[in-house]
TrEMBL record:
<dbReference type="Pfam" id="PF13584">
    <property type="entry name" value="BatD"/>
</dbReference>
<dbReference type="InterPro" id="IPR025738">
    <property type="entry name" value="BatD"/>
</dbReference>
<feature type="signal peptide">
    <location>
        <begin position="1"/>
        <end position="20"/>
    </location>
</feature>
<protein>
    <submittedName>
        <fullName>Oxygen tolerance protein BatD</fullName>
    </submittedName>
</protein>
<keyword id="KW-0732">Signal</keyword>
């Protein structure tokens, strides 16, 4: 009898160590697409098995071409005698953007057991097609004349985006170094920004897994990535310079050769490395006769800087 009791207790312990994930229902879609392009709109149910998914029949600015297709993934893990089970059910729609502008992709609802769950909504930007788009070319791409020997400066470059070019002493400036590319890239390495003399910098921590997004710039569509973002606080009046940014990019470009495949002739791609550099930018810093130490420190406090940092600003000079 004691043996049976011990087995029952062990079974109960095992049951209490089985954990299922919480139920969530999430909309997943790109943040930007090109007018006329097709993309996937996904509603992902985690932690449950749903029925009767409901989305609006008419999505403003878009045509629903197909869906939903349903895929299910179930998994479990045992770590330190703790069993965790997970389930993902993905409902995928094929959608085409028919209008330019900024839209909200709608929430969907689904029933899990006796409960109803509603997804988030998501804002999406629909860009105009590339001005150089050739007949028959995929609408999400842009034309390019780059080769392994010569990467066109219009196909890939780094831009300096500055919130203001004329500021007062101690007034914060937001500076973004943004990479633009119409080419496929393999890697970004050796990002170098020289020290900003006359400024106190405060770098933003950018996510390590951030993704490239589409942007329409000077009539062309580029994939973009912010490689560095910082706040600069000018410490003296006069013309101050934000130095250049330099980085090494490895691109994938056509070699000039083609191979025959099931889908027809395709380019043979090779890697090409290029160093991209921005030009220095000059900022006009003027004296703020009305500002005092207390005002500046209050502004820094509003922006979230701690007291030690706020006090250090006035000890630099």
């Amino acid at each position: 009898m004691k043996e049976y009791c011990c087995i029952l207790i062990l079974l109960l312990i095992g049951i209490t160590n089985v954990h299922a994930q919480d139920v969530s229902f999430i909309l997943n879609a790109p943040t930007s697409v090109v007018k006329g392009a097709q993309f996937q709109l996904q509603y992902i149910l985690r932690g449950g098995s749903g029925a009767d998914i409901d989305i609006p029949e008419d999505i403003k600015g878009f045509d629903v071409l197909y869906g939903p297709s349903v895929s299910e993934v179930y998994s479990s893990s045992n770590i330190n005698n703790k069993v965790t089970s997970e389930s993902n059910v993905t409902y995928t729609y094929l959608v085409m953007a028919r209008e330019e502008g900024i839209f909200n992709l709608p929430a969907a609802s689904i029933k899990v057991g006796s409960s109803n769950y509603k997804s988030n909504i998501k804002q999406i930007k629909v860009l105009p097609p590339d001005k150089n788009l050739q007949p028959g070319q995929p609408i999400t791409l842009t034309t390019s004349s780059s080769t392994a020997e010569d990467i066109d400066s219009n196909d890939a470059f780094v831009s300096v985006i500055i919130s203001k070019t004329r500021v007062k002493e101690q007034e914060a400036i937001t500076v973004i170094f943004r990479f633009y590319t119409a080419l496929e890239i393999r890697s970004i390495d050796n990002i170098q920004v020289s020290e900003c003399e006359g400024f106190v910098p405060e770098d933003f921590q950018l996510p390590a897994n951030r993704q490239m997004s589409l942007e329409h710039y000077n009539g062309r569509n580029y994939y973009t990535l912010d490689v560095k973002k910082t706040l600069l606080f000018p410490q003296r009046s006069g013309m101050l310079t934000i130095p250049s940014c330099k980085m090494e990019i490895v691109f994938s470009v056509p070699s000039g050769e083609k191979v025959t495949t099931f889908f027809g002739p395709q380019d043979v791609m090779i890697e090409a490395k290029k160093t991209l550099t921005t030009s220095p930018v000059t900022i006009d810093v003027i004296i703020d006769s009305d500002a005092d130490e207390k005002t500046v420190k209050n502004n820094l406090e509003i922006q979230g800087f701690d007291k030690t940092y706020r006090d250090s600003i006035f000890k630099i000079n």
